[in-house]
């Protein structure tokens, strides 16, 4: 299957709605970029400069290490189209972090058309390239909300650091010193680089990766102790405390929720 100049393949295309639930941001992992096109409601984008509110028509472009949009503190519902692309090595697809839709058709019409055509273009790199080009051409950068750029050398160091974290977070012995050594910078330089690229410190990034992985493993109905070990936590108790602090409930409660959702429904025939 041939690769297009910018996009290797389409990883996912989906509509997402929060309804009355509160969602935290996700981290974008190496080898992919994601675009979120807001269709309705209001969300926040966390950046090193603070929180930026986004609404209908806003198009947010995420590179590896970035965090996706999330629910506001007021839990205002929002709806968006999520497009995930696998990128070719050494290429970035993003023009700017935040754009606004300017197409002749509405953002919602574009989203509905894209989702309707998806079933006929699964694993089609040309369809992925079309989506990328359409979003690039039919949107304009929001210069008044443009985020701080980091230098080329800092960007390379961040990429090395985040790649190392994403591959090693399950090791309880992983330290910020290890990450700095892998990125070929000092610990203080690493903190400055992260400060310019994300609102997370290197240590917080490690824990965020561990938490997101734990959420995935919990859905597989594994014992809590095993989930903690697989996610890089030194103890089950430490994992439970960290999980409850971040998500507001225990991993056991989430596990029971998954079990209820997967339980078979029994009906009476008599």
UniProtKB/TrEMBL annotation:
PROSITE patterns: HTH_ARAC_FAMILY_1, HTH_ARAC_FAMILY_2. Residues 159-257 form the HTH araC/xylS-type domain. InterPro entries: AraC_XylS_family_regulators (IPR050204), Homeodomain-like_sf (IPR009057), HTH-like (IPR037923), HTH_AraC (IPR018060), HTH_AraC-typ_CS (IPR018062). SUPFAM superfamilies: Homeodomain-like, Regulatory protein AraC. It comes from the Bacteria. SMART domains: HTH_ARAC (SM00342). The keyword Endoplasmic reticulum does not apply. GO terms for molecular function: DNA-binding transcription factor activity; sequence-specific DNA binding. Keywords: Activator, DNA-binding, Transcription, Transcription regulation. PANTHER family: HTH-TYPE TRANSCRIPTIONAL ACTIVATOR RHAS-RELATED. This is Hypothetical transcriptional regulator, AraC/XylS family protein. It comes from Reinekea blandensis MED297.
């Amino acid at each position: 299957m041939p690769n297009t100049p910018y996009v290797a393949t389409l990883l996912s295309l989906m509509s997402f709605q929060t309804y009355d639930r509160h969602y935290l941001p996700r981290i974008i992992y190496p080898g992919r970029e994601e675009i979120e096109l807001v269709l309705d409601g209001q969300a926040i984008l966390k950046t090193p400069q603070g929180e930026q509110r986004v609404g209908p028509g806003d198009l947010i472009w995420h590179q590896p290490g970035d965090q996706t949009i999330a629910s506001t503190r007021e839990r205002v519902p929002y709806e968006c189209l999520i497009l995930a692309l696998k990128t070719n090595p050494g290429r970035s697809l993003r023009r700017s972090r935040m754009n606004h839709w300017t197409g002749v058709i509405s953002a919602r019409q574009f989203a509905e058309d894209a989702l309707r055509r998806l079933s006929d273009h699964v694993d089609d790199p040309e369809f992925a390239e079309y989506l990328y080009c359409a979003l690039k051409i039919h949107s304009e950068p929001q210069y008044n909300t443009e985020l701080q750029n980091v230098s080329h050398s800092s960007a390379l160091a961040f990429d090395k650091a985040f790649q190392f974290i994403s591959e090693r977070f399950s090791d309880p012995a992983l330290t910020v010193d290890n990450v700095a050594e892998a990125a070929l910078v000092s610990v203080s330089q690493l903190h400055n680089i992260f400060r310019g690229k994300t609102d997370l410190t290197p240590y917080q990034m490690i824990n965020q990766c561990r938490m997101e992985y734990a959420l995935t493993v919990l859905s597989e109905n594994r014992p809590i102790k095993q989930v903690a070990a697989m996610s890089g936590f030194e103890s089950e108790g430490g994992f439970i405390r960290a999980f409850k602090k971040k998500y507001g409930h225990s991993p056991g409660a989430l596990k029971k929720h998954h079990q209820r959702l997967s339980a078979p429904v029994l009906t009476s025939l008599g």
